[in-house]
Design a protein that fits this description.
It is a single chain. By secondary structure, the chain is an alpha+beta fold. The chain has seven helices and six strands; from the N terminus they run ααααββααββββα. About 5% of the residues have low confidence. It binds zinc ion. Zinc ion binds next to loops. The site of zinc ion (ZN) has 8 residues, from loops.
């Protein structure tokens, strides 16, 4: 039997609930990085230590499964490994983030606005306009204009009635 969905060699449920590994994947998704950068960023963000033993074995696992690849450079006579997601690794991350966002949709709703006109959810770049003294969110200026037009039609129907030209 052929599988209809892509199978990852990681259990998504396990990954999504493992905050350390989630952090590592988030860092990798932002671009090529070093193991120590992952550790430093963790410390900076959470004021807690992330043990190298939580980072390097996982990076090796990811590489074994071809989700990441590494390049080695020499910096001041020290060997430095740069880790980078492969396209499969990027797909894994996108799936993981989507899964995470679905589970925690309540937390993300705080970032969302709903367009007053078309009801679409806006994550970034909300267009605001003050209408009748109330600041209203819109996904774009066109929705704002259409909404304003619709208010005029419903509230003062005389002003937008088409004028019948005598023929
Ligand atoms: Zn809209």
């Amino acid at each position: 039997m052929r599988r209809m969905t892509r199978k990852y060699s990681f259990n998504m449920t396990e990954l999504v609930s493992d905050f350390n590994r989630f952090h590592i994947l988030t860092m990798l998704y932002q671009g090529p990085t070093h193991g120590y950068q992952i550790i430093n960023q963790y410390k900076h963000n959470f004021k807690k230590e992330l043990s190298p033993s939580a980072v390097y074995p996982f990076l090796h696992q990811l590489e074994e499964k071809h989700y990441i690849k590494h390049t080695t450079t020499v910096n001041e006579s020290k060997l430095r490994n740069t880790f980078e997601l492969t396209p499969t690794g990027q797909a894994l991350c996108r799936n993981l983030f989507r899964y995470f966002t679905e589970i925690h949709s309540t937390a993300f709703k705080i970032l969302l606005h709903t367009c007053t006109h078309c009801n679409s959810q806006i994550y970034k770049g909300t267009y605001h306009e003050i209408i009748n003294g109330t600041k209203k969110p819109f996904c774009c200026i066109h929705c704002a204009n259409t909404y304003k037009q619709s208010i005029i039609t419903t509230t003062t129907n005389t002003t937008t009635q088409p004028i019948h030209q005598p023929t």
